[in-house]
Amino acid sequence: MEELKGQRGEIDSLYEETIKPLHPGDIVKGKVVSVSDKEVMVDVGYKAEGVVPISEFDEPPHVGDEIEVFVRALAGESGIQISKREADKRRQWQEILKAKENGSYVRGTITKRVKGGYRVSLGNYEAFLPMSHADVKPLDDPDSLVGVESMFKVLDAKIEGKVPNIILSRKIYLQEEYEREKEEFWNRMVEGKIIEGQVKRIVDYGAFVNVGPVDGLLHINDISWKKISHPSEVLREGQRVWVKVLSFDRDKNRLSLGMKQLTPDPWENIEKKYPVGSRVKGRVSGLVDYGAFVELEEGVEGLIHISEFSWTKRIKHPSEVLKEGDEVECVVIELKPSERKISLSLKRIEENPWDKVEDKYPVGSVVEGKVKKVLANRVVVELEEGIEAFINADDLTWSRRLKRPSDLVQYGDVLKVKILEVDKKRKRIRAGLKQIMPDPWEEFISKYKEGDIVKGQVTSITPFGVFIKITDDIEGLVHISQLDEKKVSSPEDVVKVGDTITAVITRVDKEGRRVSLSVKEYKLMKEREEIEKIISSSGDSVFKLGDVLKKVIGKE
């Protein structure tokens, strides 16, 4: 019997050694041994197992799970009082205090707005978030933060009576997180890196793109290879884009980005793609006073200068020929790759009509044309579309009495003209209208000579004399001194327009194409003829001059 008691004592001693020393207030680890609808049995290594209500678990545990529990009281062999919820609360409180001391963060959810700030649920505790610590900048809509889960900095944590007082800052967390992310960002940054970002703000000179903790500038010149007037032609705020890092300054927090650099430069090997003399097609992308820009491909534009629009027409503005969006074919006439310039020609698609103008309109040929302009001293005649000839006023008619070209021809008249001169370099053709008709002067001098008597109608009166129409195209001048035998103060005292006058041709100026007439000389000639007639008819060998004059005067 004594031996049996000794063995039982040894067993009790061994059993006591396997039991953990527990005290009320301890937090210990235990293993789940059973789970029911109402409670969870937990072995914490004590001589009796503890029971935790199932309501203290967010999700029912599994047999074998290891959990932490708080020892409320030791109840002897009948069991112990333990709580998982209290263990969680006490453990979290320690974590909160530790976060306050070492500056780490706690996670929570903003549950509602209260006076001066927000309530934040940390799980087992509620904390206060002052409005001034809610965000890094003032909030347009404070209610927008309700329901937001975030990390927080612990500003203060203490027990006031039995109630924990915890004050948090989301603002400090965001600031410190931003600085950490920015530091990591710059540590990873290298030129040429391709990153994704979001267009944050568009300005006239480009766009600011958010690429994480930093906003980079995407300059308008680096958005597209093609010319754009404003970034909004390509981008919109909120758009996700891929960009290339062109340069950065970590100290100044500056980042230059490029979009067009993600694609090959279209100006590379431009001489091979668009050699001088080649025909190319493009779309009119813009009109200016001095020409039209043509997009040959995205990022490559050429200029058609206004002088390269037409061989023959005088173009005042490109809009007379083209409009934006037109598809055109042109010829490359000059390349300046270093300046990114291409000069194009619209007119060189066709042959220059002035190259063959001398063959088509040789000097001396008679051609037909339509009057396009009647000017003060000349007439412009269109020989064909774009080819014009001018007729000087002197070449319109043989008559010297033409005051203005409009007295002879009108706009739209169709005329036959003679080509007098062709200047291909200056693109000028001179023609004549009178040259296709006989020269009346040549006909006149072949029929009339000095001393001939002519009769004509007064066409005009001037202070120095009167003009008399001798033929349809020839006029002669009777100087005031030759209007009468007597002195004439004013031609109008002697004649009026429309009177018919007989006069003698006193002078024919072939070079000046002028005819001088004299009425005075004609009268003297008639008197001499009369005297000779009277003398020859008288039988007397002697006669008195007074008798002869009486007869002449009497006949007059």
Structure description:
Helix 7 crosses helix 8. The chain has 8 helices and 30 strands. It is of the alpha+beta class and 556 residues long. It has 6 domains: 83 residues, Nucleic acid-binding proteins (OB fold (Dihydrolipoamide Acetyltransferase, E2P)), CATH 2.40.50; 73 residues, OB fold (Dihydrolipoamide Acetyltransferase, E2P) (Beta Barrel); 74 residues, Nucleic acid-binding proteins (OB fold (Dihydrolipoamide Acetyltransferase, E2P), Beta Barrel); 80 residues, Beta Barrel (OB fold (Dihydrolipoamide Acetyltransferase, E2P)); 83 residues, Nucleic acid-binding proteins (OB fold (Dihydrolipoamide Acetyltransferase, E2P), Beta Barrel), CATH 2.40.50.140; 83 residues, Nucleic acid-binding proteins (OB fold (Dihydrolipoamide Acetyltransferase, E2P), Beta Barrel). The strands form 6 sheets. The protein has a 5-stranded mixed barrel with strand order 1-2-3-5-4. The protein is rod-shaped, with a radius of gyration of 59 Å.
